[in-house]
Amino acid sequence: MIRLKVNGKNHRFNGDPNMPLLWFLRDEIDLKGTKYGCGMGLCGACTVHVNGRPARACLTPVSAAANAAVTTIEGVSPDGSHPVQVAWEELDVPQCGYCQAGQIMSACALLSSKPKPTDADIDTAMNGNLCRCGTYLRVRAAVHKAAELTAANRTRPAKPAAKASSARTTRNGGNK
Amino acid sequence: MTMTRINRRAFLQVTALAGGGFMLGLYTKAGTALAQGPPRMAPLVPADFIRIDPNGIVTLTAKNTEIGQNVLNTLPMLIAEELDVDWKDVKIIRADADNKYGPQFTGGSSATPMNWEPMRQVGAAGRHMLIAAAANTWGVTASECSTASGRVHHKASNRSSGYGELASKAATMPVPDLRSVKLKDPKDYKIIGTSTISVETKDILTGKPIFGIDVSVPGMLYAVFQRTPVLGGKAVSANLDAIKALKGVKHAFIVEGRPLRNDYPNYLFEDPGFESGVAIVADSWWAAKSAREKLEVKWDFGKWGAQDSAENAKKAQELSRQSAARTLRQDGDVEAIFKHDDIKIIESSYVIPFIAHGTMEPQNCTAHYKDGKLEIWATSQIPQTGRTMVARLLGLPESDVTVHLLRGGGGFGRRAYNDLMLDAAWISKTVGAPVKLIWSREDDIQHDYYRCGGFQYLKGAVDKGGKLVAWHDHFVGYGEGTAFAHDGGFNANEFPARYVPNYRVQSTVMPLGLKTGALRAPYSNCTAWVIQSFIDELAHAAGRDPVQFRLDLLTTTPLPLAAREAGLDASRMMGVIKLAAEKSGWGKRQLPKGTAMGVAFHFSHRGYFAEVAEVAVDSNKKIKVNKVWVAGDIGSHIINPSSAEAQAQGAVIDGLSEMTQEITLKNGRVVQSNYHEHPMLRMSQAPPQIEVHFLKTNNPPTGLGEPALPPILPAVCNAIFTATGERIRTMPITKQGFSFA
Ligand code: FES
Ligand code: FES
User: Does residue B470 surpass a pLDDT of 80?
Assistant: First the structure.
């Protein structure tokens, strides 16, 4: 029996202890925000925090997270109000968006250890996160922006945008 | 010219005919390249795109698949503009695949050109009906009424009504004639031309399950599918009992596959269609994937089991020395020019590798077959074709197949092929449960529809005055007979055709046992590199400035277009070349030793792009692209400037990644398996600045997913040449010892 905390909630797992944390999160406790990209630690799409440090969930057996506190994209803030999310929205970072959960988790980890990172710091911290759509310039700018927002201790409300209500009808595969 | 048998261009021509629009019930051909028989008539109705609830909430349907290009916003923005509602008051829903929406085709940078007119007309017709409802209620004439922000106003009587109040009456008003419906004066645009953030951005940033891979259906099982590693191979037997005994495994079975070529006479050459393999279905994806590691399959690999990239390269060399199988175009007499002794002749050969798409979200599809009906959740770029294919495979009427469209984690052409739909549907039907099929990254890289490789043997001549006087090209590619593999051909009218008096392009093809297909800016993504590199070689041979040499070429009076030929508009191209040169300070900046600028241009997908790259190369041949200037002309309007800049910047980074990629075959199988062997640029390797400039010209707006990509490869290679004296003629650049720092 493996016990672990995910986004502040306790979970137990009786299955294969070698199952990567990635698939535990996605398929066992239905947190689909953490993404599968390569399964080999090459792309960073699966980045989560384990006890506050960034980790590749595809290479972390769920047993290695036993008794740990795991944070996923869903735990950053439920409403997108974290400075990193706000900066990402303001600078319109995502294209397809698939890599962005991993980008955000890496950025959050960087900013908590280096509140005012340089371009070089950002490149080093983010180099493990591939983006097939090529959003790197905006990612870099958004990390700086998030640092500013955090420093100013303000998170502006997001710009009004239309809602994708279909997300609600299709996200769980529900029939329309 | 037959570039492909499943012909993108022909398809676009067909669908362009549907540009008449939707609200009037104009008819569209069943929007699929594979559609057989007479066009299906699908009357289209406004209610399919616009819903206005009595409380005033406006819901617009986004019909095309979102793969990162923000088309979820783009098309509804066009409707909202003409409907005259505020963007902040609009909700967007994604359409399922359905012919009632007209073509839901995500490819060829076609969303804007195909929908610019019809989507605005849909919005304008909706507005017209709302005005008619108000006028009718108030007993005034429609022409006295105006609209703004979701309300109809009658100034004279100082009355106004919200769209919500008018909605039910509007629905009973006659649908206006599309040709007579009045569109806004562009100077009044409030939405077109403003940056809007994707309606799904918030969901992305908070980790909501909006992608194809995130779908879950009650009772769903998870599948992996070991497809034949060699094209056309057959799974003969496997240790299925041992696999079925593994923990979590529910089903394991051989899929025989079925050649779809019989069903679709114009299907891809060697594509067996529904391929053979072994499916493992388990209660978790991890269990299925782990079981697969124990899988032992006996295959019959058939005729492609010995295919080898090195052999193909050798064969291409031999073929290049023989006379070509086919002459695609001939102007003047190149051979006569090459005999002159007062000219400079340059001969070069270029090697184009196969490359994979490697979308961040691996291919996946969820299917649920139950009681003769099929429900699919997919990220297809051409979902209507997928629906047709899967209906035929399972022998169902199309009306019994529902395809829900989900956000795709990148597409780049890969999601145009719908092969996963076939696999998932078949597996679901076999096991009698909903099934989510997810490919591993390795499956994804090894079973792609690859960007086709090829070999270009060029010979060009410049005269004493530095003028390009002859151009010969023998393209040795892949295909069947003399026809090219899918998206692996050569366009006989490719620039500099018509601009060089003596011009000849010929081709020879070798057989290929690999599926090829559209990769972002198909054909252009490698052709531009070859042509713009060779033009650069000739400019240097002529001792001319590469920008001026190009401008002079474009100033030449072109040879006339043959019937049915489309040609580039030289003045639009010169416009962007000049803009890129001006913005980059071409020829005006002092650069340190080892640093240089390169230029290139290309016309594709109706878009005109010129790019300049400033590149530094160190003594270890490590490349740093310091800055890129992109100049594009895609017509009169940039619908969403933020997304447009993102597409152009992304295309540049994508193009740079392609310079490091290669797919090779050994024993009929793809050698590369994951991102370590098929890399992409990382953040530290990306140019720190990519400046994007649009030249707005009086032309209809066209698409941007693709045309910004092709020029970046030659622009960088041309800069590398100027910086180092070494010309890159073989991709990936690592073959010549270069790499990104
Ligand atoms: S999926 Fe974990 S690093 Fe790629
Ligand atoms: S936004 Fe598409 S992979 Fe990064």
Answer: yes
Just give the CATH number of A2-75: 3.10.20.30
Other beta carbons within 10 angstroms of residue B240's beta carbon come to 18
The CATH number of A83-155, from 1.10.150.120, 3.40.50.720, 3.20.20.370, 3.40.366.10, is 1.10.150.120
Taking every pair of C-alpha atoms in chain A, what is the biggest distance, in angstroms? 47
> Would the pTM count as exceeding 0.95?
no
Which residues are paired to B516 by β-bridges? B450
Number of domains in chain B: 3
pLDDT over 90 percentage in chain B = 82
Residues 6+ away with beta carbon under 8 Å from B42: B27, B28, B30, B99, B100, B102
| B401-416 b/e (C-beta count within 10 Å ≥ 16 → b) | bbbbbbbbbbbbbbbb
Give the closest residue to B612 by CA, choosing from B595, B627, B622, B632. Answer: B627
Q: Is B351 in the same domain as B391?
A: no
Token pair for residue A136? 């790197």
Residues B25 and B90 in one domain: yes
Q: How far is the CA of A106 from the centre of ligand 1 (A)?
A: 13
Concatenating the DSSP letter of every residue in B494-541 gives -TTTTTSSEEEEEEEEE---S-B---SSTTHHHHHHHHHHHHHHHHHH
User: Among partner residues A30, A36, A133, which is closest to B213 by beta-carbon distance?
Assistant: A36
Q: For residue B139, count other CB atoms closer than 10 A to its CB.
A: 7
CB contact under 8 Å between B653 and A15, yes or no, is no
DSSP readout, B554-623? HHSPPPPPPTT-----HHHHHHHHHHHHHHHTTTT----TTEEEEEEEEEETTEEEEEEEEEEE-TT-EE
Ligand 1 centroid to Cα of residue A38, in Å, is 5
Residues B223 and B78 in one domain: no
- Domains of chain A: which residue ranges? 2-75, 83-155
A44 lines ligand 1 (CB under 6 A): yes
Q: Is the pLDDT of residue B75 over 70?
A: yes
Tens-place pLDDT, residues A74-108: 999 999 999 999 999 999 999 999 999 999 999 99
Pairwise CA distance, residues B681 & B679, whole Å: 7
Domain that holds residue B248: 212-303+363-438
List, chain by chain if needed, residues with CB within 6 Å of any ligand 2 atom: A 94-100, 131-133, 135; B 68, 360, 410
Q: Searching chain B, which residue's CA lies closest to the CA of residue A90?
A: B197
